[in-house]
Amino acid sequence: MANQNKTPIIDALQSSNWNREIFQSLVDSGLDAVHVTVAYWHDCRETLSAIGKWQRWFRENDDLILQVKSVADIDAAITSNRTGIVLGFQNSSSIEDDLALVETFHTLGVRIMQLTYNNQSLVGTGYCEKNDSGLTIFGRNVVSEMNRLGMIVDVSHTSEKTCMEAIEYSERPIAITHANPRSFHDVGRNKSDDLLVELAQSGGMIGFSLYPLHLAGETDCSLESFCSMVARCAELIGVNHLGLGTDLCLGWGPEQLEYMRGGTWNDPDRSSDLPPARWPQYPRWFRKNEDLHNIANGLRRTGFVEDEVSMIMGSNWYGFFREGFESR
Q1: How many CB atoms lie within 10 A of CB 50?
Q2: What digits encode the pLDDT tens for the residues 245-260?
Q3: Residue 274 pLDDT class (50, 70, 90 cuts)
């Protein structure tokens, strides 16, 4: 168990252009663990290189960060005043068409994998596709292997039918690490109330996103509006299924955003339906890790009691990771 004097603070998704300054901000903010994106559209070889970069960062910044493979590592981060880093993928492209690579990446410390990013993958359908074919045969095998190993299934960018089928097929609870209810802001990346109910009934978790395009009013979204959304979701599915997945992206230029949108298969000259690649500005009350306390205070003002604030700020993810990271 974590130090009884410290309630874990956990962010279930950040995708920054990492450096020592940002690692220091994690520690200064009081974050005990954060799930970071290692791969988007990367193939196996590219992903191995990205993990190698993280291994170097762990070595060179071991006074600030450490790798998380179990909640015991989160406990170690708390007691040593460091931030634990959970390696994860926002796509299944890293395993290509080889089921054995799931275990390979698990051995390297990857503990979360999103089934799809925005488009159709070999595993399932992304939310941008017009035709939702659901979980594939290969996808069912991948989910089973992730269940066996203790790698959390993430469906944040996944289509409705594929999400539902992942919930149904998975023998373990799954996660939406970074999204919001579509009833709060009606965009494709957010999730329907029906899906959230199914997620909660199966024991799953949602991490609320602060990425502006996921918020009602986008950059102008107020803290009060965001926290009211959390309260409505607590009424819908229960506070024990709620956490944060801020989707904080620091230090990137427009080229990275273009890559995140479409990898190397997308021709930006032919994507006239997309606006120019320009990072949106986060709301004024959350623009850096040190602003996490604003969310906690907003939840208190909205009516959440202290135990509930602690659950949303991290203890729910702590319990979910404790079970989800265990192999079978």
Answers
A1: 18
A2: 999 999 998 888 888 8
A3: low
In whole angstroms, give the CA distance from residue 288 to residue 86: 19
How far apart are the C-alpha atoms of 293 and 134, rounded to whole Å? Answer: 39
Q: CA 10, CA 168: separation in Å to the nearest integer?
A: 27
Composition of the chain by helix, strand, coil, percent to 5: 45, 15, 40
Q: Is 270 exposed, middle or buried (0-12, 13-18, 19+ CB in 10 A)?
A: exposed
| pLDDT digit string, tens, across residues 188-234 | 999 999 999 999 999 999 999 999 999 999 999 999 999 999 999 99
CA atoms within 13 A on the CB side of 224: 0
pTM above 0.85, yes or no: yes
Asked if 162 contacts 191 with a C-beta cutoff of 8 angstroms, the reply is no
How far apart (Å, rounded) are the C-alpha atoms in residues 35 and 58?
Answer: 14
- Tell me if 39 is assigned to some domain: yes
Q: How many domains does the chain have?
A: 1
CA distance 304 to 319: 20
Strand partners, 34: 11, 85
Looking at the domain assignment, is residue 5 inside a domain? no
Q: Which domain, by its residues, includes 22? A: 10-324
How far apart, in whole angstroms, are the C-alpha atoms of residue 327 and residue 55? 23
Interval 123-160: pLDDT, tens: 999 999 999 999 999 999 999 999 999 999 999 999 99
Rounded CA gap, 41 and 260, in Å?
A: 8
| Domain-embedded: residue 89 | yes
* 112 CB-near residues (< 8 Å, 6+ apart): 35, 86, 87, 88, 89, 151, 152, 154, 175, 177
Q: Does 201 reside within a domain?
A: yes
Instruction: Give which of 13, 257, 41 is closest to 111, Cα–Cα.
Output: 13
CATH code: domain of residue 47: 3.20.20.140
Q: Which two tokens stand for residue 149?
A: 């190993």
